[in-house]
C-alpha cells in the first residue's frame, strides 16, 4: 500500500492494471488495497472511462509519506516525556512509536536507538488507576460535554457532587488538573483528577469561551499578581551562593525575583504567600540561608520552627 501511494504521488493517473503489473500482484488485490487506503483517509480519486485511473486529491500529492530521521527522533523522545507525565493514551502512544520503528530503515533505526538510549526522563508518573478517568475527562473536553463528579475535598474522605463544564486539562507538578466552569460556584475552578472518585458524562453541551487557556488560569493561581504592588512585600535573603541559585530558580520564586547579587536575593511577593507558604518552603534550606527582611518573615520562621519542635517533642514523650 505504501508503494501504491508512492506511485500515485509520482504519476498523474495510474490504472489498476498498471499497478498490478508494477507490483506483480493480482488486480483484485489492487482493488482491496485501494479500498483500504480510502478507508484510512487517503483521498484517492477513481476516474472511469478510456483515460481513467486512480489519482490523489489536491495537496495530498505534496504530503510526505515518511518522517526523516530528525522528525522520528523528536517524536520518539517527546513520547518519552509524555509517558512519564502520565499521558492518558499511553498505550496508543507506545503502539505508534513501535509502528514508527517498524517501518523505518535499518540505519535510521540504529540512529534512533542511539538517541533513545542517550535520553532519560525522570518524572513522577501519575497513578495508573487514573488513566481511564483522565481519558474520560479529555473526551468530555473535546466534545464540550458537561461532567458530573464526586469530588474529594482536601485530605478527608468526604466527597461532594459537582457539575463542571471542562475547558481543558493541565499537567502541573506531577498532577493532572481539569479546569472549567463549576456550576455550584458559578465561576471557573480547577480540580485535581486524582481526587475525582466518580465521574459521569452528561448529555448537556456547553460552549467553551473563545481563547480560554486552562494553562494560564492554573498558573494564575500559583504565580504572584504583579499588578497589585500595594499588596506586595519586599523579601531579602542572604546565604550561600549555591543555595541562592537553587532558591531563585525555583518555580515558586522565579517570577518574583527583583535583584540578585552573589550572596543576596531580593524578591517582591504577595503578602499571603509570605505568610502562608514561604516559611515552610524556606525550612528545607536549613541554615544555608538567612532572612534579611522583613521582620514579619523572621517571626513567622521562629513560630513555625517552635510549633514543629513542640509537636515532635510531644510525640516523642508519647
How much of the residues is beta strand, in percent? 15-25%
Which CATH top level class of the largest domain fits? Answer: Mainly Beta
Sheet with the most strands? 5 strands, antiparallel
What would the principal axes of the Cα set say about the shape? elongated
**How many domains comprise the coordinates?**
4
InterPro entries: CBASS_pafABC_assoc_protein, HTH_11, WH-like_DNA-bd_sf, WH_DNA-bd_sf, WYL_dom
GO molecular function: DNA binding
Protein name: DNA-binding transcriptional regulator
Keywords: DNA-binding
Condensed summary:
The protein has helices at residues 2-10, 16-23, 27-39, 69-84, 90-102, 106-117, 131-143, 214-220, 241-249, 271-276, 278-283, 295-317; strands at residues 44-47, 53-56, 145-152, 159-172, 175-182, 187-192, 196-205, 232-239, 257-260, 264-270, 289-293. With 318 residues, the protein is an alpha+beta fold. The model has no long low-confidence stretch (mean pLDDT 86).
List the helices and strands and how they pair.
Layout: H1 2-10, H2 16-23, H3 27-39, E1 44-47, E2 53-56, H4 69-84, H5 90-102, H6 106-117, H7 131-143, E3 145-152, E4 159-172, E5 175-182, E6 187-192, E7 196-205, H8 214-220, E8 232-239, H9 241-249, E9 257-260, E10 264-270, H10 271-276, H11 278-283, E11 289-293, H12 295-317
Antiparallel strand pairs: 1-2, 3-4, 3-7, 4-5, 5-6, 8-10, 8-11, 9-10
Helix pairs in contact: 2-3, 4-5, 4-6
